[in-house]
Amino acid sequence: MSITYSHRLILPIDSNHYGTLYAGSLLRIALEAGYATAWKHVGPHANLVLRRVLNLECDRPVPIGTVIEIRGAVLHRTQAYLITGLIGAPLQAEQPPWMEALLGFVQVDESGRPQPFPNNLPDIDLPESADNWPQMIERMQKLLRIR
Fold it and tell me: In sequence order, what are the residues at sequence separation of 6 or more whose Cβ sits closer than 8 angstroms to the Cβ of residue 5?
């Protein structure tokens, strides 16, 4: 399993009136990390659009000046749709992740209609790390049943 690492410095423009990461900025940053993860999996011919935010949870405030790390992996794929899982690496030792997300992307053609992925994509395997991947996969499977 290939993990995509995204890093970002949280700036004042990303913050709310409490001096922590604003929810709108969190959505933008998570979308960028999710897209990078999906693009890396599909390759340079990817033409992906966000179809669904299955889940996005921010469990800890992120102060201005923090450099965040988001780990991404493709957890599910069908003919033209895939789901990326994102985990915000703990901000301090002994803390759980500060963020988790599941984002669904669809491969589209020039007219914006779903188009099958190339046949030579890598297999999807559970990431081999101590992160919360098994719990995310279980959550994803439950959420996929909901329309």
Answer: 69, 70, 71, 72
The 10s digit of each residue's pLDDT in 16-26 is 999 999 999 99
Distance CA 131, CA 88 (A): 10
- Number of folded domains in the chain? 1
- Token duo for residue 125: 């395997």
State pTM to two decimals: 0.91
- The CA distance from 135 to 21, in Å, is 25
Pairwise CA distance, residues 42 & 78, whole Å = 12
CATH of the domain at 42: 3.10.129.10
Q: Which of 90, 132, 2 shows the shortest CA–CA distance to 140?
A: 132
